[in-house]
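In this section we walk through a basic example: taking a raw amino acid sequence and producing a predicted 3D structure, encoded as discrete structure tokens. The instruction is simple. Fold the sequence below.
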Amino acid sequence: MKLQVKHEKMLLAGQWIESDRSFEVYNPQNNQVIARVPKASESEMLLAIDKAHKAYQTMHAWPTHDRIRVLNKAAAYMEEHKERFAETIALEGSKTINEARGEVTRSIQTIRISAEEARRINGQTINFDQSEGSENRVGYSYRFPIGVVGAITPFNDPLNLVAHKVGPAIAAGNAVVVKPASVTPLSALLLAEAFMKAGLPAGILSVITGSGREIGETLITHPYVKMISFTGGVDAGERIAHQAGIKKVNMELGSNSPVIVLSDADFHDAVKSCVSGAFSAVGQNCIGVQRIYVEKDIYASFLEEFKARTKELRVGDKLDELTDMGPLINEKEAKRVEEWVDEAVQSGATLQAGGVRKGTFYDPTILTDVPNSCKIANEEIFGPVVLIYQVENVNEAVERANDVDYGLQAGVFTSDINKAYYTIQNLHVGGVMVNDSSDYRIDAMPFGGVKNSGLGREGVRSAVEAMTEEKVVSFRLQQQLL
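The resulting token sequence is shown next.
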């Protein structure tokens, strides 16, 4: 049966519009066209930014209770249409239907947490009399929205990573213009639908679909846009940082995430967690497990059990509930993963499992003995490949874990609290997950990294803070109070 191709519209300041041009969205599993989406022009992006600026000026005193109401109604709409959202994620992206359902659940939580954080945007009182000569001054600080936020989102979490930018922006009282990934724009448009159904004022949200090369720089450089929130690759992040100029920039740029497994750990639990962390979402996950450092006493047992669990994973149809792993986002990415693995094997690495590509599918792959000179040892693979190394002790594990240009999250498995604290204090990352893999995250926690893994922090509360500014108010009293 031939799938009917949907003709989608994009949201421009509260209006669903078409454009003079369109592009096709494909199901990466079979390269079938599933939708045609407007390909926005620079003039349409300029109009969206202008409308957002005017909406913000009109709504700059937007009451907190109204923002909370809109966010909660949007979350309720998503809950009501949960399966439709999940099917959209699975069709346009790489996730299995079960993984897509999990993403919808998290996205709903992200929007609901945003509603909760809207009521907690508080300032502080300031004791001015701590400074000599200021005894007759009192005051406080408060936070106010920055204006228009430009959001640029990737393909791997096409709903929740949009929610992580739109939810906090609205909670803080900003307007937001979203440029979603061109390969997965449908989930972002569905989220926009939820906000329109929730009664979001026109202009506060636009989702502009199209080529980043044609409209991305316009969004990044426009003076009305006061902040860029970007999730994506390092190269694109560097370009954005240079283009943005003097404005806020928040970036999550990926990683090459390490996990340390010490001999005192429950290695069965570590294997289970790391297999999931390495191969969920086809490894297309910024905190996915890529490097595992296992203490020598348990290395052989760990590797054998890891191989056995990996070989049990079922690769296939994304919409089949029994499938564990679907395709990569396109064949170009699958070929890149294949090339990186082949380079490592040719350089002396041992292929323990996987290493087979069929179109956009790539089998879950385990490598050992990977030389440090290989690209796969230093860069983010963003595919279903994990590297397992033997180490002498925790000191060596930490040193080798740090020996890359990334630092988003790390995992460590141990029952020794002193060793746990050693890793916490010495791993150069934005988060250390003790007795969990690097893949663990909840949407309320601060999330971000160091080095080439980005600037600033996401997570709803952190994003709300980034999307507001602090203003200090001081009153000089005309006479001392009696």
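Looking at the output, two observations stand out. The CA atoms of residues 356 and 362 lie 6 Å apart. The chain is about 40% helix and 25% strand. In the next section we compare this with other chains.
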